[in-house]
User: Which sequence fits this backbone?
C-alpha cells in the first residue's frame, strides 16, 4: 500500500506539520492554559469564599461557557466581534477563547478540590491566629491543587487536541497545515493519520509529565508509609 | 480571667444556648459535661468566635467585648492569647508535625523561623513526640495527632486552652496518652476549658465542673463538690447514668 510516492509525501510533510505544532499548537496551549489556570483559581476562590455578587457573576460565566460549544465561542470572537468594530488576529482570538473556555472547566475542578479539604483545617488556621487568606494560601490551596492535579492534567491534554479547532478561525496550527498538504496531494487517509500520530506524541509526553509531576508533588506522607 | 455573660445562640429556630454565664479563673481546669446536644461544644466555639453568638458579653484580660458584634481585629487579639484543640485534631495535612506547630508562629506572629522551630521542638518534645517531628499527620496515629495539636496549642503560649472533646474521636487505647498530656498541663497550672465525656478526667484532674443541659447550665461547682455532693436531681441522674455506662 505504501508506495514510494506516499512515503515521500509522509516524510516530506512530517516537518511541515510538526513545525506549526511547535510554533502554534504548543504556544497556543501553554499560553491559554496558563491564563486559564489564573481564571480558574480566581473563580474557584470567589465561589469557595462565597463573595457576594462576584459569586453570581462567576456562576454565570461558568454556566455560559460550559453550556456553549467551543467552536461557537471561537466563531463569536473571531468572526462575530468585527461587526462591533473589534478585529482581532487569529492567534490572539484563539488564546482568548481557549483561556476563557478552559478557565470555566478548571474553576469547577479547583472548586471541588477546595471543598474536599476538611473545613476544620481552616478553623485551625484561624485559631492559630492566621487570617483567611493566609490559611487559604498556605494550607488549603496547596492541598486542593494537589488533589486537582490529575484532573487538570487531563484538561491540559484535552486542550492540546482541542487547539485543532483553531484551524476554523485561520490559525495556522498542525491541523490546518495538514489540510493544506491534503489539498495539494490528495492523500487524506495517510496525512490525517500522520497528524493524529503527532498529536498522540504530544499527548504521550504530557501523560509522562503528569506521572512525573504526581510523583514529584509533595504527597504529604501519603505514599511514604 | 475569662468570663462570659448571658451567651445565647440559635441555629434557625433551635435555641442551642439559652443564656450561659461562665467564669474561669487563672489556673482553673474547667470540665464542661453534658449529654450530646446540650450545647457545650457550641459554647466553646462561641467563646473562640468560630461561631458568632447572638448575644453575650465577654470579659477577657480586663477587656470587655460584646460577642454578637465583635470586630475581626478584636477576635484576632483574643485568639493571640487563646488556643483551641479540636475533636478531629484538624492538623494541617500538608505540613509536618513540627511545621504544624510553627506555622502559626511564623505566619501569624511573624516570628523568625529559627526561633519558632526552637519553641516548636520544645512543645513537641513536651507531648512526647520528639522522634515524630518530621512525620506528616497522615503518618501518625490519632493519639499522636491529637498530641501534636496540643503541642500546636502550647507553642502559642496561650493564657487559656479550649479543648473540644479532645478524646472523643480516638480509639479507646489511644485516649490515655492524650489525657496524660492534659493532666500534666493541668498540674503545671495551665488554664483549661475542656468539653469532655471523660468522667475520670473531670473527677480527678479538673478543678471545676460545669454540667449543661438544653443550652443551660444545670449545676456548677468544684470538682469534688460536684461528684460527691451534687445538688440537682438532674445532675445525680446524669452521674448515675455515667457510672452505669462505666460498668
Assistant:
Amino acid at each position: 500500500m505504501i508506495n514510494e510516492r506516499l512515503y515521500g509525501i509522509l516524510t516530506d510533510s512530517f516537518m511541515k506539520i510538526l513545525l506549526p505544532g511547535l510554533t502554534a499548537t504548543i504556544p497556543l496551549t501553554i499560553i491559554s492554559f496558563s491564563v486559564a489556570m489564573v481564571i480558574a483559581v480566581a473563580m474557584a476562590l470567589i465561589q469557595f469564599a462565597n463573595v457576594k455578587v462576584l459569586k453570581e457573576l462567576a456562576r454565570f460565566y461558568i454556566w455560559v461557557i460550559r453550556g456553549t460549544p467551543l467552536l461557537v465561542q471561537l466563531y463569536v470572537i473571531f468572526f462575530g466581534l468585527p461587526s462591533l468594530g473589534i478585529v482581532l488576529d487569529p492567534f490572539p482570538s484563539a488564546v482568548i477563547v481557549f483561556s476563557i473556555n478552559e478557565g470555566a472547566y478548571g474553576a469547577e475542578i479547583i472548586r471541588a478540590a477546595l471543598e474536599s479539604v476538611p473545613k476544620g483545617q481552616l478553623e485551625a488556621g484561624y485559631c492559630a491566629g492566621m487570617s483567611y487568606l493566609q490559611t487559604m494560601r498556605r494550607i488549603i490551596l496547596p492541598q486542593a491543587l494537589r488533589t486537582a492535579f490529575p484532573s487538570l492534567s487531563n484538561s491540559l491534554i484535552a486542550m492540546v487536541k482541542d487547539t485543532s479547532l483553531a484551524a476554523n478561525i485561520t490559525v495556522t496550527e498542525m491541523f490546518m497545515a495538514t489540510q493544506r498538504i491534503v489539498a495539494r496531494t490528495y492523500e487524506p487517509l495517510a496525512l490525517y493519520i500522520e497528524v493524529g500520530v503527532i498529536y498522540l506524541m504530544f499527548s504521550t509526553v504530557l501523560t509522562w509529565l503528569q506521572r512525573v509531576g504526581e510523583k514529584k508533588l509533595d504527597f504529604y506522607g501519603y505514599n511514604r508509609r | 480571667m475569662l468570663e462570659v455573660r448571658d451567651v445565647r445562640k440559635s441555629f434557625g429556630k433551635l435555641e442551642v444556648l439559652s443564656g450561659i454565664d461562665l467564669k474561669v479563673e487563672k489556673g482553673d481546669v474547667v470540665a464542661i459535661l453534658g449529654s450530646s446536644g446540650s450545647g457545650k461544644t457550641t459554647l466553646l466555639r462561641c467563646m473562640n468566635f468560630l461561631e458568632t453568638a447572638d448575644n453575650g458579653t465577654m470579659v477577657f484580660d480586663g477587656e470587655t467585648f460584646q460577642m454578637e458584634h465583635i470586630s475581626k481585629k478584636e477576635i484576632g487579639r483574643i485568639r493571640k492569647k487563646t488556643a483551641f484543640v479540636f475533636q478531629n485534631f484538624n492538623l494541617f495535612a500538608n505540613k509536618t508535625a513540627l511545621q504544624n506547630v510553627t506555622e502559626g508562629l511564623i505566619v501569624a506572629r511573624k516570628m523568625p523561623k529559627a526561633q519558632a522551630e526552637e519553641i516548636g521542638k520544645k512543645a513537641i518534645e513536651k507531648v512526647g513526640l520528639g522522634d515524630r517531628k518530621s512525620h506528616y499527620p497522615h503518618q501518625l496515629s490519632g493519639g499522636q495527632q491529637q498530641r501534636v495539636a496540643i503541642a500546636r496549642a502550647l507553642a502559642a503560649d496561650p493564657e487559656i486552652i479550649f479543648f473540644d472533646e479532645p478524646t472523643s474521636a480516638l480509639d479507646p487505647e489511644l485516649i490515655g496518652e492524650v489525657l496524660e498530656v492534659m493532666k500534666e498541663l493541668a498540674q503545671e497550672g495551665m488554664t483549661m476549658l475542656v468539653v469532655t465525656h471523660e468522667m475520670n478526667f473531670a473527677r480527678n484532674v479538673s478543678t471545676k465542673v460545669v454540667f449543661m443541659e438544653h443550652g443551660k447550665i444545670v449545676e456548677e461547682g468544684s470538682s469534688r463538690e460536684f461528684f460527691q455532693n451534687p445538688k440537682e436531681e438532674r445532675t445525680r441522674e446524669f452521674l448515675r447514668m455515667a457510672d452505669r455506662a462505666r460498668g
